[in-house]
Design a protein that fits this description.
Length: 145
């Protein structure tokens, strides 16, 4: 009996680990280059990403990444995860577009701006919609460190 419980436990642990999220670092997301492109709809130029092979392999995968939480417009559900704190994030000139992810949470988070958190969600790559970040995590949840 104990042997059966032990083997069942090992099997369930193996299945869980096979479906667990993949830990990703900011370095992993840096496999991208950018080209300036004119968008008639906004009469302006924007950096358009050309994702590298290793980043393309992450698309659609459940990933987990740690960074600084940015609450840009909580009433509208606009949240970001940044490689850098708010004072030196992408929007303030401290990094490139690859250093920030847009987060679409399952439930409204209770994190504070600049709190270090780990976020898990499905990675979506965005090269076309200038109203959203290049990296988007959907169905996200997280925890503070």
């Amino acid at each position: 009996m104990i042997k059966n419980v032990f083997l069942t436990g090992i099997f369930l642990l193996t299945v869980f680990c096979m479906h667990a999220q993949q830990e990703v670092t900011w370095q992993d997301l840096s496999d991208v280059s950018f080209e300036s492109k004119y968008f008639k709809s906004s009469d302006d130029y924007f950096l358009v990403p050309d994702f590298g092979k290793s980043v393309k392999e992450l698309e659609g995968e459940e990933i987990s990444i740690t960074g600084y939480f940015l609450s840009l417009s909580p009433e509208d559900g606009v949240y970001m995860l940044s490689q850098n704190p708010m004072a030196s994030c992408f929007f303030c000139g401290g990094g490139g577009p690859e250093s920030v992810l847009e987060i679409k949470f399952k439930e409204k988070p209770s994190f504070k701006t600049d709190e270090v958190v780990t976020i898990t969600g499905k990675l979506k790559l965005n090269a076309d919609d200038i109203n959203h970040c290049n990296y988007i995590l959907t169905g996200a949840s997280g925890f503070a460190l």
